[in-house]
Structure formats: C-alpha cells, structure tokens
Write a structure and sequence with these properties.
This protein is α/β, with parallel strands linked by helices. It folds into two domains: 3-53, no CATH class; 59-392, Alpha-Beta Barrel (TIM Barrel), CATH 3.20.20. It has 17 helices and nine strands. The protein has helices at residues 3-10, 18-31, 36-53, 59-62, 102-115, 135-145, 161-166, 181-187, 193-209, 229-240, 255-268, 284-290, 300-303, 350-358, 361-369, 371-375, 380-390, and strands at residues 69-72, 120-122, 148-153, 171-176, 215-222, 244-249, 319-322, 328-329, 340-342. It has a nine-stranded mixed β-sheet with strand order 6-5-4-3-2-1-7-8-9, covered by helices on one side.
Length: 404
C-alpha cells in the first residue's frame, strides 16, 4: 500500500476501528518517512485520536510546539531505594551519576529561555535535588531568568532549605506513602517518616512566617496497604500544615523495567512483536513492588484496549530530560545511559531531539504496547474504576476524580 493511501485511511474521520488503525500504523512504521509535512500530519492525528478517545487528557497538555517542562538533573543520585524506581534498582540499569556544573547549568537555562519563555524548570530527574549542597545557587539562576521552578523532594535530607525557600520556587512537591514508619518504609525504602514530618513542619513554618507564595503539594502515593488509617492521619497532618494534599495512585515509574515486564507479558500472550534494544534482568525488588500496586502494568492491555496505538507519542513535545552531564535522555521516565539521545543538549535543537526520538526502537515498543498511557495515568475514570474494584469500600477522597 502506498504512503498516500495509508495516510488517506489513517486520517479518515470515520476510521475508528482500533484494529484497522493499528494495522495502518504497522504499515507506516515500515516506511519511516522524514518529510516534515508528513510528520506534522501524524502529530495532528495523534492529538485528534486522543482528544476524541480520552477525555482526561487536556488539550493544552498536547497542543505545544516546544516543551513545557524541562527536567534538569542538578544531581543524579537519590538517598532512597524505592522498589519501582530506577534509582532504587541501579544494579539492573546502566546509570551514570554526577552533579551538574553550575556555570553549565546557567548556559542551559539561557538556551531554554530562548526556546520557551513560559517553560517550567524541574531541577531533578529520578533523583533527590537536595543532595546537591549548592541547590540554592541553581534555584536562584532559574528564578533570576524569569522561568518557573518546580521542586520535588522526599524531604529526608536538606541543604540550604530556608535560603532556597526564600527564593520562592513556584511549586514544591513532597512525596510520602504513609504516616507511620512501618507503612512509609515499605515503598520509601531507607526513609524515616519522623524526619519527614519534622522537615515538613520546618517548611510550613518558613512558608507562613515569611508569607511565601510557594505552592506546597504533598503527593501521597496510594498502594493496596496504605489507604486506611495512615491515609487519614497523613491527610489531617498535611492540611494542618497548610499544604495541598494530593493522593495519587502509585505505579511502576521506571520505563526500562516496566517495558521489559510488559514484553514478558506479551510473550506469555503469544505476541511476537519487536524487541527492546537491550534486555534487563528484573530484580526481585521490582516484582515485590508490583505486588503493592493497585493498578499494575498487567492492566494496560484491558484498560486501553479501546485506544488505537499511536504512531508518534503525543507527549513527546511536552518535556525534555537533561542529565547531569548535559546529555539529553530519551524520556523523562528513563534513567539508563543507553537511552541517551544526544551527548550535549546545548548542541541540538528541539527539532533534532524530536527527530531522534521519532523512530527509536524503545519508543516503538512503548507506543505499541500503550505503556505510555499507563505512565501518564491517562483516563482518570478508568483508574478510579480499578481502585474501586480492588479496594472494596474505598472512600471517594482516595480517588483521582474525587468520586465524581
């Protein structure tokens, strides 16, 4: 079938059958055309499919020509060893750790500012930013540039916290998974909830003493064991501190390990599709972590059966992930150095980054299996349905849609 005929069918508004779209996608991937108009039409079609099929994805999330979020690792290590995170399973991956040079960081911020003056800078990756003892200097560069800044921390360790908060980062996200040590330490391996509480109280005191505008959000990771007493106690504590309490269904957040697992599931189902560019021996800690999830990668096949496989990732324009050495990572969900797109962010354009992503074999498997939908928690109503089915009698404040 000729490319023009493939496109004509693919762009037909009446072509809603998942099997037909997936078949056409397979034909398209065999061609792999780099015509800019052709690619633009494919991107538009990806947005169209998602806007029509998945109501939980806001249009503003996808309709961007440049990234909205820039993850920049000012430090690439983490002080915790969470079971479902790449940072907690570094023996299974090829990871290069380091701290970004401050002057180099300043030049990167200048380039981003020129690309998108409305960008949001996240000075972390799969890492803990406060392990960089000079974090204040990095946040000051961001704020002086006029760009927005979102911090994220497990708040088990701090460096220059008061000075850094006085710079008023726009958003500060704190992740917890319980209110007692026995519950909290299951997911946040190596963490101490009592230290976390102490530091959260310190943040609250600094914020309200100085009338800071920083929006502090506490992301409560919801598992199948922490949704009762610990949830209620954590919610009460967070609201007393004057922070936003945001429950969020936990998921497997290492793309490398998750895709390896999904490929194993595909093979059990008899699928013989394309392989990943490299294999990973999944550690026992990863399997242990899966047992605690309410919604597992196993659910992807049924949850998103109605969604056609995308040709081009609709989230590709949304974020750029820059490692501590200045290289560009394939995706914000990855940490393995074998998935570096470009050795230096400063030497490539956004168009170059997108071009290198476009036919990457790792992305091909992710798109075909629809794993990226799971990572982005697409369709909150489906996630809530799974939660209600598996946690009998779960209160509505544990749901993404609040029971709506």
């Amino acid at each position: 079938m000729r490319v023009r005929e493939i496109l004509k069918k693919l762009y037909c508004s009446k072509c809603n059958a998942v099997k037909e779209v997936n078949h056409l996608r397979g034909l398209f991937l065999e061609v792999k055309i780099e015509n800019e108009n052709f690619i633009k039409k494919c991107e538009e079609q990806a947005k169209k499919i998602f806007h029509e099929t998945i109501t939980a994805v806001p249009h503003s999330f996808l309709d961007r020509s440049v990234p909205s979020l820039y993850h920049i690792e000012i430090n690439s290590q983490c002080n915790l060893k969470c079971k479902l995170c790449g940072a907690g399973n570094i023996s299974a991956l090829q990871v290069q750790n380091g701290i970004m040079n401050l002057d180099y960081f300043r030049i990167i911020i200048e380039k981003i500012k020129n690309e998108n003056s409305d960008a949001i800078i996240l000075p972390f990756g799969n890492s803990e930013p406060f392990l960089n003892k000079n974090i204040y200097d990095y946040i000051k560069i961001i704020k002086n540039s006029g760009l927005r800044c979102t911090l994220s921390s497990n708040v088990n360790i701090f460096s220059n916290i008061e000075r850094t908060l006085m710079l008023e980062p726009d958003t500060f996200i704190i992740s917890i998974s319980g209110f007692t040590q026995d519950i909290y330490s299951v997911a946040h391996r190596g963490g101490d909830i009592n230290i976390v509480k102490k530091n959260m109280k310190m943040i609250s005191d600094i914020k309200y003493k100085n009338n800071l505008k920083t929006n502090v959000i506490v992301n409560y990771h919801l598992y199948n064991y922490n949704w009762k007493e610990d949830f209620d106690a954590a919610k009460k504590w967070v609201e007393e501190l004057g922070f936003v309490f945001a429950p969020n269904c936990a998921r497997s957040i290492s793309m490398e390990m998750t895709l390896q697992y999904v490929r194993q599931l595909e093979k059990k189902r008899g699928a013989s599709s394309s392989e990943l560019p490299f294999s990973i021996e999944l550690p026992q800690s990863f399997y242990d972590g899966l047992e605690s999830l309410i919604v597992r990668p196993d659910d992807i096949f049924d949850m998103y059966e109605h969604v056609p496989s995308a040709i081009i990732c609709p989230f590709a324009n949304f974020e750029t992930y820059i490692r501590s050495d200045g290289s560009v990572q394939l995706c914000g969900c990855c940490s393995d150095k074998r998935l570096v797109l470009a050795p230096k962010y400063l030497h490539v354009s956004h168009e170059d980054i997108q071009r290198r992503r476009r036919w990457h074999p790792f992305c091909e498997v992710c798109l075909r299996t629809k794993t990226y939908l799971y990572f982005n928690m697409v369709d909150f109503q489906k996630w809530d349905s799974m939660v209600k089915m598996r946690l009998q009698g779960v209160p509505s404040d544990r749901l993404l849609c609040g029971g709506a």
